């Protein structure tokens, strides 16, 4: 398995990584530390209109603009997990996972978007998957919303319509009722930044509204309130009997500075991209970060708006949102350097979030990249991010809900092995320095449709043959390496798989 190439790459990157300060042969994890893998409904399920499921915003984008997704791909079949869920559970058993994170498809469960009609076939699919997992002691971690909004709700404004706070909460309540006796870990929303900025303030994700500096901020307020309302419904009405946990999953890339004069710009970049969601939930006093409120308000007045384009949170709303997450769910992939000088003035469309921030980003040429070029191997940034979360929010319990690396098609993924090894090592450094990190979830268990990038980026521990009717799943080297970490509960720098045949260990 090209061990020499892998070790050379690993040690080359290690020599450049400040965070890899502990490079012993083996590193142990805390006794109660847990490991999982993640996927999302639209990316793997297929069955886009099967058994009563209706159209999501991603179905709509793929079908109305057939080549909006790279190579004219779509999620109509994807990995066909709607039919192959037993093979998926077999993979979980092969890896020895403690838990599996997957998402529910809103239009598969509620075809109208509302609870007036529950699609029994969709419910049965998720019950079948959950039951198959529980049979082998694999815990379900269920994301209620991972980007596949019913298209009908989008036509009524989607996440910019404040009524979606109730629409989403009604949907969440249905999920708690249907699955809450079996599911003990809920994620309300996955990556609000990608939902709001990529989908409403840009055209990088469905619904591709591209209404910059307005729609994305409306979305941000509504999604925080929807999350918080669902949290309180679960906490007050379901937790007493079901006894589970509920939290939000935030995408936080680390914005760093290479030169001291850009320290404030880097701090603002972190505030605008992820603390805009974390600060209202995890900070002592709640609300949006002051830097975001002040910059957006000043820009808005300058542009002729009568008020800030960032809607205010009322005192009641601040209290509703503050503290509404049992864990800090963290999705992390890469690090960026930030600068702010005269060259960035007028660089971005006005109004827009980027113009409000008024900073620019770059990465070092020597940083090793993958198939997703921005996803470069900088584990020191992961350590700094985890430390910042600890320091800013009084060390909340953290669950790494996504972390991974994209490669090309094929079983060759030494770069992914390097990435996962170094990032887990950085996480262990953070744990040693006091960060309360409970679990690690690799993205992803198998190849999937990576949104507008289609099948060109492969994040899976298992390769999926999307050209075969069987959608065959085959383990890559990273699957064997991750299995060894999970099985031994230690990070072994020198581990090299001796086989390419994956088996299920006794007990799984």
UniProtKB/TrEMBL annotation:
GO terms for biological process: carbohydrate metabolic process. One of its GO terms (molecular function) is beta-glucosidase activity. Belongs to the glycosyl hydrolase 1 family. Residues 1-19 form the signal peptide. The keyword Signal applies. The active site is at 402 (nucleophile). This is beta-glucosidase. It comes from Parnassius apollo (Apollo butterfly). Keywords: Glycoprotein, Glycosidase, Hydrolase, Signal.
